[in-house]
Every structure is written in C-alpha cells, then in structure tokens.
UniProtKB/TrEMBL annotation:
Keyword flag Iron: yes
Name the UniProt record assigns to this protein: Cytochrome c domain-containing protein
The organism's taxonomic lineage, starting at the top: Eukaryota, Metazoa, Chordata, Craniata, Vertebrata
Cytochrome c domain segment(s): 23-166
Localization of this protein: Cytoplasm
UniProtKB keywords: Cytoplasm, Heme, Iron, Metal-binding
Region described as Disordered: spans on this chain: 137-178
PROSITE patterns the UniProt entry points to: CYTC
Source organism of this protein record: Mola mola (Ocean sunfish)
Length: 178
C-alpha cells in the first residue's frame, strides 16, 4: 500500500503559520529558531529519543546563514532532510522525509500552556463595571469601556452661571429684546 506523496506547498502552508506565530512583524517567509523548535515540538518531530531539542537547535544553527537569525523555506527543507533519517531510523532518506512531511502537513501552532485570564473570587466582582456606583460609575460608558480623562476630572464650567441654574445661556436674548 503506497502512501500519497505530500507536496511541498502543503508543508509550506504550515511553515508560514509557524513562522508568523508570536511575531507581529513576521512575513511568513522566514522562521526564527524559537518557531523552528516549536514546529518540531508541536508536530512531534522531537520524540525525546531519536530527536531531541538539542538536535533541533544544532541543525538550525548549521542550516542558517552565519550572521542570520532566521531560515527560509528552502533552508527549512534542508533541516528536515537532516532530521528525517534520525527520526525514522531504518527508512530510506526519501521515505523518512515523506513521513516527516506527513507529521507537519495541516498542523497549526498550538497555544497549549498559554496563561489564561484569572477569574478568581473577587477579581470578577471588582472588574465588573455594571456594579459600580457613585462617581466610579460615571467613569465608564454603557459597554463598560472607560471614558479616560473625561470620566475622571470635574471639568469646570466657566460660563459664569451657577451650576444648578436652568436659564443658562439666555442672557444675550434678554439684552437684545430691550
């Protein structure tokens, strides 16, 4: 039973997803060492026996250009070609590489172990703006978003009228009528 060959385009899609992971400025054309180690870990290329994180780091350093800190997709393929025989011992180089591609295709960066927002006891209650009263209530709009400086400061009324006076702004009209 022959396995379907995996195309480089399918591998490149996963490469691009991992290349931009955690880096807002990344274009997806180059991958740094941290993301290379992440793709190896998330796709189970690192098995702890035949391939370790140290092996992955060494191969990354060997493949990349001396001053560079990133590798291109072509260099990524070179790295996989070196990792394949280590990961799948006893297989031909081409067969091992295809199995490695099979591990990578369709994978996305996992966010397992990422810190979650704490929702413990008082935190929930204290951050719920709908329960605020008095002056604190005025610092937030209906959606719970803060108003910033406008919600914090008493903005002085320099119109010359007393704060509770209802006829504010009618003086000019009275003077012109006479």
């Amino acid at each position: 039973m022959a396995e379907a060959l995996v195309s480089k385009a399918e591998v490149q899609t996963s490469f691009q997803m991992f290349a931009v992971h955690g880096d807002a400025k990344a274009t997806g054309k180059e991958m740094n060492g941290k993301n290379f180690a992440k793709i190896c870990k998330d796709c189970h290329i690192i098995d702890g026996k035949n391939v370790t994180t140290t092996d992955v780091d060494i191969i990354f350093s060997k493949i990349k250009a001396k001053p560079a800190r990133v590798i291109t997709f072509e260099q990524f393929n070179q790295a996989l070609t070196e990792l394949a025989p280590k990961r799948f011992k006893g297989k031909s180089k081409e067969e091992a590489l295809q199995k490695l591609y099979g591990l990578i295709v369709g994978k996305r960066p996992a966010n397992i172990g990422v810190t979650k927002v704490a929702k413990v006891g008082a935190v929930d209650r204290l951050t719920d703006t709908s329960k605020y009263t008095g002056l604190h209530k005025e610092r937030f709009d209906e959606s719970g978003k803060g108003k910033g400086k406008a919600g914090r400061e008493d903005i002085p009324d320099s119109s010359g009228y007393v704060a509770g006076y209802k006829g504010s702004g009618t003086y000019d009209g009275k003077v012109k009528d006479t």
